[in-house]
Amino acid sequence: MKSLVLLAILAALAVVTSCYESHESMESYELYPFINRRNANTFISPQQRWRAKVQERIRERSKPVHELNREACDDYRLCERYAMIYGYNAAYNRYFRERRGAK
């Protein structure tokens, strides 16, 4: 009986410690934590915005080979399903490398 009471007390302590909600988990105490749509673009200056667009265009032009292979595989449903099981590299090799004749 004593062990049952001790077990109940330990269980109660475990519940209390796991259910304790600290205020650190709250992201913001502000009433309106979000910015309205008009002021949303004021964080980035026009020059930084231009640089970001240029860098994105450069990244689109010079993608790594594995990313190009993955995009090709994503466009083909059978390849995508095969990739979910065996990975994109194996799926690309199965569906696209064999067609070219390179092994």
Automatic annotation (TrEMBL):
Molecular function terms from GO: calcium ion binding
Pfam families listed in its UniProt record: BGLAP_C
Disulfide partners: C73-C79
Keyword Calcium: yes
Annotated transmembrane regions: none
Modified residues (4-carboxyglutamate): E71
Subcellular location: Secreted
UniProt keyword list: Calcium, Chondrogenesis, Developmental protein, Differentiation, Disulfide bond, Gamma-carboxyglutamic acid, Metal-binding, Osteogenesis, Phosphoprotein, Secreted, Signal
Gene Ontology annotations for the cellular component aspect, listed alphabetically: extracellular matrix; extracellular region
Example GO BP: ossification
Positions annotated to bind Ca(2+): E71
Record note on modification: Gamma-carboxyglutamate residues are formed by vitamin K dependent carboxylation. These residues are essential for the binding of calcium.
Gla domain span: 51-97
Signal sequence coordinates: 1-19
Coiled-coil residue windows: none
Record PROSITE patterns: GLA_1 (PS00011), GLA_2 (PS50998), PROKAR_LIPOPROTEIN (PS51257)
Similarity remark: Belongs to the osteocalcin/matrix Gla protein family.
Described function: Associates with the organic matrix of bone and cartilage. Thought to act as an inhibitor of bone formation.
Protein name stated in the entry: Matrix Gla protein
